């Protein structure tokens, strides 16, 4: 049915175009052949009523042409917006899949040895997956919701590690701040993956989130083992692309490496 409507629309456009070409050709032919004029002035010596009708026709044709151009531009913008939305959903779907696989592997090992710990792990994992699936599809979420998600992520890591780690999360935020979902998690993931996970002792990760003057400041600092080469992966590229799409000219992402310490800062302007 959609194809039939589309074909009918193009048929009407073709008829209008052919008529717009045919009318001046017919008038010119009539002037030369029937009236025998040696030169032709468009609509000259025609009855006023005929001239008015033809002029009205071309005025309508011009209006239709303008409307058609506007509709085409609108369709192009909607297509671009839809493509952008699809790209964002694709990028969000890539957020920490291997983390969930690692947790499931930990669960497999805990089920037979520590049932209570496994139950606690399952509850937190369930909360995280629920947030990723349902809240992750929203345009924006509250900053409080995003922080709860990050804290669940940290708690899951604390449960799965069999070593002492120094993990601190500080937050000082104002209410009613909105943010795009699942932006900060990639920076936390990197801190655990390339820092805490590779250190046998004295591993730490300090994180803080503050809001001030319609800006969100997020900072992650962790130590790492310089002898273990790091890999960039798709995580940071994913984050940079998402920031370019949803916070154009409204964000700043910086990285500093010094004395085996990695620090990343992300600043967002409130939407």
What's the topology here?
Layout: H1 2-34, H2 48-93, H3 97-111, H4 115-134, E1 141-142, H5 143-160, E2 166-172, E3 178-179, H6 185-194, E4 204-212, E5 215-223, H7 235-246, E6 251-258, E7 261-269
Helix pairs in contact: 2-7, 3-4, 4-5
CATH top level of the largest domain is Alpha Beta
Structural class: alpha+beta
What is the global morphology?
elongated
Main pleated sheet: 5 strands, mixed
Give the overall pLDDT as a whole number.
79
Overview of this structure, please?
The chain is of the alpha+beta class. The protein folds into two domains: 2-92; 94-269, Heat Shock Protein 90, CATH 3.30.565. Helices cover 57% and strands 17% of the residues. The chain has seven helices and seven strands; from the N terminus they run H-H-H-H-E-H-E-E-H-E-E-H-E-E. A five-stranded mixed β-sheet has the order 2-4-5-7-6, covered by helices on one side. A hairpin with a 2-residue loop joins strand 4 (204-212) and strand 5 (215-223). The longest helix is centred in the N-terminal third of the chain and has 46 residues, at 48-93. The radius of gyration is 32 Å and the shape is elongated. The model is unreliable at 1-6 (pLDDT under 50).
């Amino acid at each position: 049915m959609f194809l039939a409507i589309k074909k009918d629309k193009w048929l009407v456009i073709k008829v209008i175009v052919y008529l717009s070409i045919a009318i001046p050709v017919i008038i010119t032919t009539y002037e030369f052949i029937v009236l025998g004029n040696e030169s032709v002035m468009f609509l000259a010596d025609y009855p006023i009523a005929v001239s008015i009708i033809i002029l009205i026709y071309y005025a309508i044709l011009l209006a239709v042409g303008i409307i058609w151009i506007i509709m085409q531009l609108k369709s192009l913008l909607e297509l671009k917006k839809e493509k952008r939305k699809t790209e964002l959903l694709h990028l969000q779907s890539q957020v920490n899949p291997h983390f969930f696989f690692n947790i499931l592997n930990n669960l497999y090992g805990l089920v037979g040895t520590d049932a209570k710990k496994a139950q606690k792990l399952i509850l937190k994992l369930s909360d995280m997956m629920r947030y990723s699936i349902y809240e992750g599809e929203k345009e924006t979420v509250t900053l409080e919701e995003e922080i709860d998600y990050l804290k669940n992520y940290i708690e899951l890591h604390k449960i799965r590690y069999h070593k002492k780690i120094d993990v601190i999360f500080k937050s000082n935020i104002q209410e009613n701040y909105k943010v795009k979902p699942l932006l900060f998690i990639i920076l936390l993931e990197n801190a655990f993956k390339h820092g805490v996970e590779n250190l046998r002792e004295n591993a730490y990760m300090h994180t803080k989130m503050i809001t001030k003057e319609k800006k969100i400041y997020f900072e992650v600092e962790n130590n790492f083992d310089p002898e273990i080469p790091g890999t960039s992966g798709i995580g940071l590229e994913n984050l940079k692309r998402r920031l370019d799409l949803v916070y154009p000219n409204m964000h700043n992402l910086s990285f500093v490496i010094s004395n085996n310490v990695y620090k990343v800062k992300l600043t967002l302007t409130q939407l």
